[in-house]
Amino acid sequence: MIYLFAGDDSKKKLVSLDAFLKQLPKEAERLSIRHNDFNKDQIESFYSGSGLFVSTSVVIFYEVLEREEIQSFVLDKISQMAESNNHFIFSEGKLNKPTIDAFKKARAEINIYELPKEKKEKFNNFLLANAFGDKNKLNLWIYFRQAINAGVGMEELVGVLFWKAKDMILKKNFSKYSEKELEQFASKISYLLPEARKAGKDAEIAFEKFILESI
Fold it and tell me: Is the pTM value of this prediction over 0.70?
């Protein structure tokens, strides 16, 4: 049995998840898993049969689908999880349509919690670009954190920083960086997120570290 709680309205999502967990059998074995302690062999043991000492297990995953490798494994095994007597519960952020469709196909109970568009905080991405252009490390970090907290996608932030570096090269603006530094920055940032995810690293942490080390 599979249950999905997803979306960017974290407050409503967690309240709903907490209420749902209280309805499950208290005698069931419970295990909480995040991407840092995700173990494929352990997960396989849960959907392939019941535990040794309990009849039912509740496995709660928290934002594990952020990692491409884990997401591929889960979606590949989702039908077997659905057939299990154990409960597999996923608490995730905003998911794309193919991923949600895979859960629907597995007949998962799906709960999506999205913030109303008019309530979503807007962020001017060019504040980040200008901080980079001014070589202001403090403002660069502050605006990066504000953008992430406002829900701006990391790919979007990569795009605006890549554009800024290329724009400075085009305009021959080398007052803060050399042409070589800007070219290296643009080249590295274009591959930053895919390489971090491929290596199983936290993409947000890798991104934050990269921009701070670039100044």
Answer: no
